[in-house]
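Student: I would love a firmer grasp of how sequence relates to backbone shape in proteins. Thank you; the sequence and its tokens follow:
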Amino acid sequence: MPRRVRSPTAGPRRGPARERWRRSVRKFVRQELAGAPIGEGWRRRLTYEIERTPVLLVRAGVASPPSTPRGFRAAHLGQMKRGLSWSPATFSLHFAALRRLLRWARNPLADQRELWAVPAEATGRRRWLSPEQLAHLYRAARRRERVLIALEGFNGLRRVEVLRLRWKDVDPERRRLHVLGKGRHGGKWRTMPMFPETARVLRTTSPPIADDTRIVPLSRSGADLLLRRAAVRARFPDHCIPVSHHDLRRTFGRLAHRAGMDLVQLKNLYGHASLDQTVHYIGLDEDEMRAGLDRLASLIGPLLKGPLPRPRREPERSPEPRPPRRAPTAFRVKTAG
């Protein structure tokens, strides 16, 4: 029987080193987070972030991740910054949880504030794919990967919206989606039409018997792994092309606006609260500023090359004489005779 070869993108097996890390995390949760004045949802998120650190280190290129929090080094932190294509918010969240674990383990790395700064090149960065890159990524994807990329790249859904989507929310006859957006109080519903390819790929996916079943029944990390597999199959890492769920969402808006979609319609499809948010999200404000700078360069650029004519001094003009001031007119008061 041929030996099965594991994918290089898969996470490490649950060996002794990873089990030691998990035991340290459980001890940290019992001693540090059990009595902390935080909510249960935030406690679960912190546990999830620090528990998956060894997998993230392998994904970032670390061959042997540390087995205990005391063994975490600055080189590991730097490799995570270079190897993970995260947004600043994701970096900040994971670093806050990891730093709290290292401080509990008395790792001196937790007190070096300058090491925990979000990478400068990732701050405020907005990425999107070209139409050719999006089509190549979609054609390289398979089965559930195609469903994920179609919903995010062709309809602009967020990752959380894709994971919440159920078969009962799909209206194939009218080609519509009923999407539950993000929000503190459960999110708001919105109805949106489906892109033709999104409708086609959902029709080819056989729905289960129960309509309440999710279309993509995965966790957030499972959805990340789906997108990463499609990117590896499309050879994106070989060409240094990072891609995330938000990159696909931005790509949808940018390409839709370039194709002629109105900004108000795009705002409603995105589920944004204001039009300014949509303009900033797809980078139109940056495009306008760049276009303005290009126009300024076309005006000043030729003057910066070659000899300049000497500036001529304008002759001084003598002040014009002021007209004489007229005397005030005398008024006579008529008296009754």
